[in-house]
Amino acid sequence: MLMMLQLCQVMVMISFSSSITLLASELHPGEVEALKQIGKTVNEDGQLSLNFVDSCQSGRVVDTELTSAPPNFEEGNSTIDCNCNITDDNYCHITSFQLEDYGLPGRLPPELANLTYVEKIEFTRNYLYGTIPVEWASMKNLSSMSLTANRLSGNIPAHLGSFTALTYLSLESNQFSGVVPPELGQLANLKTLILSGNKLVGTLPEALAQIKTMKDFRVSDNNLNGTVPQFIGNWTQLQKLELYATGLQGPIPLEIFHLEKLSDLRIADMPGPEFQLPNVPIKRENLVLRNINLNGTIPEDAWKVETTLDLTFNKLVGEIPPNTIQRQFT
């Protein structure tokens, strides 16, 4: 009789444990509904079958299946991460939402704001149109957003300044126009800002000087005006700066060349007064200063660049040092 009672207790414990495990892998019902709406918004013509499930399996929500695609378009990549240990509500929550390379024809989904624990959004290389929904401004955990290579248009919305947790923001290769909003200066934690390949005009706002954490800044291929702002030379954490065909003019602040952590410096097609490249003993991996009105001789330290050295279409004089002949530069 005692053995039967003990066996019964064990069976009850196993059953109870199994039910807890099952519940702990279940996505929050509100997030399941949000996934359904997101699928409809980004997939207006129904070319994709977005088969989201309602459980968190090994940290992932699966799965999306491509049923048809534009000609010559490769199947995309979907990664939807989830976490079952964020809260004590016995539900799992989505923390990362990534749909890349699908050629999605719809709009950015406002319903994504209902995934309140999302830290990363990735819609790179799709065909989404419209703008960034104002509803997203409520996503206080969002630290990374890439909307690269879509057809988003209009002004870059000022409400991006509300994404105070952002460390990474890429709006590259879209159709954004208007000025760079000064509200971006409120992103005090931002480390990467990529605005290249749009139709932006005006000057770079002084408010960007407030971002002390900037490590990577790219604003190439736009229609900006004015001179290269002095505050870039005060970004002491800067590691990469890319200013190709921005529309900006020189002079280039000499402080930029003295930034100790700046290993990748690329400036091209920028009119302005002639100037000499300073001799700065800073290790650089890439140094591209093409068609920016450099004159004089090439400083000795410039020849120590590790990967790419491009000083073409300037007014430089002198000879290539003999010990650099064997090195290959582009």
Describe this structure in words.
The relative contact order is 0.07. Residues 1-23 and 64-72 have low confidence and may be disordered. The protein is 11% helix and 24% strand. The protein is built from 2 helices and 21 strands. The protein has a single domain (22-263), classed as Ribonuclease Inhibitor (Leucine-rich repeat, LRR (right-handed beta-alpha superhelix)). The protein has helices spanning 2-24, 29-42, and strands spanning 48-49, 60-61, 65-66, 77-83, 93-100, 120-122, 129-130, 144-146, 151-155, 168-170, 175-179, 192-194, 199-201, 216-218, 240-244, 264-268, 275-276, 286-290, 294-297, 308-310, 315-317. The protein has a 12-stranded mixed sheet with strand order 2-4-5-6-8-10-12-14-15-16-18-20, with no helix packed on it. Strands 7-9-11-13 form a 4-stranded parallel sheet, with no helix packed on it. It has a 3-stranded parallel sheet with strand order 17-19-21, with no helix packed on it. The chain has 330 residues and is α/β, with parallel strands linked by helices.
Topology:
Elements: H1 2-24, H2 29-42, E1 48-49, E2 60-61, E3 65-66, E4 77-83, E5 93-100, E6 120-122, E7 129-130, E8 144-146, E9 151-155, E10 168-170, E11 175-179, E12 192-194, E13 199-201, E14 216-218, E15 240-244, E16 264-268, E17 275-276, E18 286-290, E19 294-297, E20 308-310, E21 315-317
Parallel strand pairs: 5-6, 6-8, 7-9, 8-10, 9-11, 10-12, 11-13, 12-14, 14-15, 15-16, 16-18, 17-19, 18-20, 19-21
Antiparallel strand pairs: 1-3, 2-4, 4-5
Overall pLDDT score:
87
Percent helix range:
10-25%
| CATH homologous superfamily annotation | Ribonuclease Inhibitor
Please tally the β strands and state the result.
Answer: 21
Summed up, the domain count is 1
In N-to-C order, the SSE pattern is HHEEEEEEEEEEEEEEEEEEEEE
Uncertain runs are 1-23, 64-72
Task: Supply Rg.
Answer: 26 Å
CATH uppermost class: Alpha Beta
Instruction: Describe the global form.
Output: elongated
How many DSSP helices?
A: 2
